[in-house]
Amino acid sequence: SFSAGNCFNPLDFLIFIFKIFFLSFRACVAWVVIDNLLLSRRVKKNLEASFSTLQARLQQIQRQNKEIKALSKMKTDFLKVVNHQLRTPASIIKGLASMLNEQKLALAQKKEIGKNILSASHGLTSILDDILLAQSFIFSEQVPAKSPCDITELIENQIKKMAWLAKQKDIRIVFQKPKEKIIIFSNRDIIEGIVFRLLENALYYTAKGKVEIKIERKQNISISVKDSGIGFTQREKSKFFQLFFRSKRAVLARPNGSGLGLFITKQMA
Q1: What DSSP string runs through 84-110?
Q2: What is the per-residue pLDDT across 91-100, written as a single tens digit (0 to 9) for each?
Q3: pTM for the model
Q4: φ, ψ for residue 151 (rounded to 5)?
Q5: Which of 122, 123, 128, 184 has the most CB atoms lying inside 10 A of its own CB?
């Protein structure tokens, strides 16, 4: 500081200027440091946001890739089913039908060929129905209409439908009916489809013994189908409802199965 009575001292003036310069410089440095800190925080925040967006996009791409691979596998499996499962019964029918034209065949032989043609026709129709149903369940978003259904009557109708196969394989179908009449509010076609496919599976994969169908009424209505068939491993159990999946035992027992029955059953349920 300078007073009016003091004479001018150049050194003091230089020190004063230096102090002002130093304080200004320090203030500038502090401002630059603060500005850099704020900038680095903004950059960090933007980088984190960009990284988060990139990560989300990457996960989306990975999910899409999985879906594309799954669809590609589904397409390959579908073509395998169409190529093999449909060709086999069609070839059998064609071969058996040509045998019927032979003059030397006895009546008993013709009857046996006719029976085999009928069996192959059932198999072909079943596979075609399964393929069409699987397609409708995968792509349809329609809510099925519901109405009152007598569950006992519904199951008895499905047992009658499969009586020919039970008779052919000499397998007993035991139906444990409920003591009271049970009416459910559901879609009749869907419930029939579930029972039919479970019963069909049980009969196809049982060489001897019986198939039991049971209705239990507790909090809900429980329908169970139990057979004395080929069985399965715990590892196979987890894959049962996958599209086109068939266990090794199932393939050996029935080479012409489509691998669609249980998938459709689950979609119906």
Answers
A1: IITHHHHHHHHHHHHHTT-TT--HHHH
A2: 777 777 777 7
A3: 0.57
A4: -65, -35
A5: 123
